[in-house]
Amino acid sequence: MTARAATRRPVGTVTRGTTNPNRLRRMDRWIATVHGAELRRASDPVAVDLGYGAAPWTAVELLTRLRAAVPRARVVGIEIEPERVAGARPYERDGLTFRHGGFEVPVPGRPLLIRAANVLRQYDEAEVAAVWRQLCARLAPAGGGSRGGLLVEGTCDEIGRRHVWVALGPEGPRTVTFATRLGSLDRPSDLAERLPKALIHRNVPGEPVHAFLRDFDRAWAAAAPYASYGARQRWMRAVRDLRSDWPVTDSPARWRQGEVTVAWGALAPRG
Description:
By secondary structure, this protein is an alpha/beta fold.
């Protein structure tokens, strides 16, 4: 590395750094299930926790959850604030390291996973597409039977009850996942406040994500008789009905977890 490269400033802006233990558990479990096979096939399954915040809990937990499915997984936590990196270093262990950096993702090679949770919320919507392109360009490429690396970018509440995230491959966005602790939900559109930056300002009439949440609320209302069997059964019935009009890509096994995943193209902003 040249002296100039070594002193190059990271790309991005310092975030508030808010973090809590178990905040990203729903996202982590989804990643381990959906992307675990790709990670297991890799000779060096590297995952990046980008913008882990003021404390390293999310990176520590990501390693633990990935290794339950991928014993050789390694996690690199990346933060743009040097003091946060210094504070995380005592938590390094086998398979877990921390580095100073930003959207340039300063790790050797091309990672199989980049998780960027609650990072883009402070950015302008117009900036999101360029950040996505930069991060997707750092992912392991597709080929040889592999779909390549995965970028998971989204938002959740402070204690991890409600999440919405976009999954992107090297080619760009693939899906949007809505995930919640069902006992905390009055109606599916409660998740609108956790839409990622690319969608949160598009929850207005005339935009696909608004129509989706409207239809989800209607399906939820129609499934009210199933509430006597519990919120899970009501959610699953609502998703089954929703599937007749929207391209739901996952199965009842994921719906039982309080999730539903929809093809990105169906929810992408107009224009």
